[in-house]
Amino acid sequence: xxxLREAAKRLKEHSGKPWSxxxxxxxxxxxxxxxxxxxxxxxxxxxxxGATIPLESIAEEIREKAEALKRRKPGAVGKVTKRRxxxxxxxxxxxxRIPVSSVRALADAGYSLGEILAEFPSLSAGDVEVVLExxxxxxxx
Length: 141
Fold this sequence. Notes:
Layout: H1 2-14, E1 24-27, E2 30-34, E3 41-43, E4 49-50, H2 55-70, E5 80-81, E6 92-93, H3 100-108, H4 113-119, H5 125-140
Antiparallel strand pairs: 1-2, 2-3, 3-4, 5-6
């Protein structure tokens, strides 16, 4: 209760407006308010300023960076790579974690190029054609 009395006293000093026109906040049991003159958030008793963090702009920046990470380099299309740290050393399409064996299994099951691309939308026709060509070569040999 003492805190509220002190807050009321400080709010009267900082605002010529009625309290109904102020935006009040509480944090850890302390009353904070937005100064009408500067739009700064301040502790009514402590006088500490609150930081305004623009979360929407931060979230948008993270979304953009995540999308950039998803995009494959143009030179990676149609290439197969094998690294111990990626999918246990299994062959994958470069720039992805999609195992070549998964696409080969679909091709062996009779899936068409379009059907395989529908199953793996992040792959391109060039990726799938590499596997289909390997399947053809294996069948001929």
